[in-house]
Amino acid sequence: TWASEDRGVHVGYLAQEVELFPGTIRENIARFKQEDPAKVIKAAQLAGCHELILKKNKGYDFIIGENGR
Fold it and tell me: Which SUPFAM superfamilies match (predicted)?
């Protein structure tokens, strides 16, 4: 049994469907927090999408619209 404050360290959540919010790719990866750009890139590399992002116009600053479009 884990204390509720420790649960987040041991339990994660992975949605079945990708959910992107209006904003930049960088903001979506950083979950709209101020994050070190190197950490955002590292996260994308680990997820296997860094090269795809670089192919987008404006790369990590590409703006995602409503419903992830």
Answer: P-loop containing nucleoside triphosphate hydrolases (SSF52540)
